[in-house]
Amino acid sequence: MERLKNKVAVITGGANGIGKATALKFIKEGAQVAIWDITKEKGEEAAKELGSDTKFYQVDTTSFEQVEKAAQQTYQDFGKIDILINNAGITQDATLAKMTIEQWQKVLDVNLNGVFFCTKAISPFMVEQACGRIVNASSVVGVYGNFGQTNYVATKAGVIGMTKTWAKELGRKGITVNAIAPGFIATEMVKSIPEKVINMLEGKTPLGRLGQPEEIANAYAFLASDEASFISGTTLNVDGAVTI
Ligand SMILES: NC(=O)c1ccc[n+]([C@@H]2O[C@H](COP(=O)([O-])OP(=O)(O)OC[C@H]3O[C@@H](n4cnc5c(N)ncnc54)[C@H](O)[C@@H]3O)[C@@H](O)[C@H]2O)c1
């Protein structure tokens, strides 16, 4: 089944983890993929692995200048941009008492400014062609809060707000905007969590395990496909029921 045949997708943070699994899924579904990532080596490696329908662009999504340049270059290379997956994100955890201003600011820069910059730079191409799909990475902690993650939770809650706002602003232009809220997924991001906390999280998850990056990639692919044509402004939990 090639649900994304002839579509061009930009996937931020596509060099690693969920983003890389998403790039692979999109290629299998027939899309052409532009991986935007700050990490050159891993990005080039991923693009090589995924083959000729993938191209890597080194982009720091916290720089609007770099984002605008990459958007122009991607449009020039592929001739259009149909899908934007705002997936790049980071954590820098600490309790409120211990969190530094730098930690607060850095996470806001990547997880909030980056999402705003990419959408601002790419949505005009979608408006011009009167169709497009934008999917943003939120998190279950953006809805429920989490100990030691003031900065990250603020950004992931903010992403849900931006998703709803853009769904309203861009709907009439033929663009759907949705978010996914993953639970705890086995990537580098989660590997930094101590083993006893991972065991506790697995215990709290009705499905009894962490999620796999491919399971988030499947949700991104669905929301980016024509099958999701009347879904907009929603946040889809992909979390093994950890939040119920
Ligand atoms: N792993 C989880 O359990 C989990 C849970 C909920 C939400 N999420 C969200 O899913 C998304 C992907 O997470 P992941 O676990 O795959 O993370 P990851 O750390 O494995 O990969 C993140 C990617 O983003 C890139 N990146 C970081 N800063 C960037 C920048 N400024 N510009 C461009 N690229 C940048 C990194 O180089 C990396 O390739 C993130 O937004 C994350 O917050 C993850």
From TrEMBL:
InterPro entries: KR_dom (IPR057326), NAD(P)-bd_dom_sf (IPR036291), Sc_DH/Rdtase_CS (IPR020904), SDR_fam (IPR002347)
Pfam family, one: adh_short_C2
Catalytic activity annotation: a (3R)-hydroxyacyl-[ACP] + NADP(+) = a 3-oxoacyl-[ACP] + NADPH + H(+)
Signal peptide: none
Domain Ketoreductase: 7-183
PROSITE patterns: ADH_SHORT
GO molecular function, one term: 3-oxoacyl-[acyl-carrier-protein] reductase (NADPH) activity
Alphabetically ordered keywords of this record: NADP, Oxidoreductase
Record function comment: Catalyzes the NADPH-dependent reduction of beta-ketoacyl-ACP substrates to beta-hydroxyacyl-ACP products, the first reductive step in the elongation cycle of fatty acid biosynthesis.
Family as reported in the entry's similarity comment: Belongs to the short-chain dehydrogenases/reductases (SDR) family.
Protein name: 3-oxoacyl-[acyl-carrier-protein] reductase FabG
Species per Swiss-Prot/TrEMBL record: Marivirga sericea
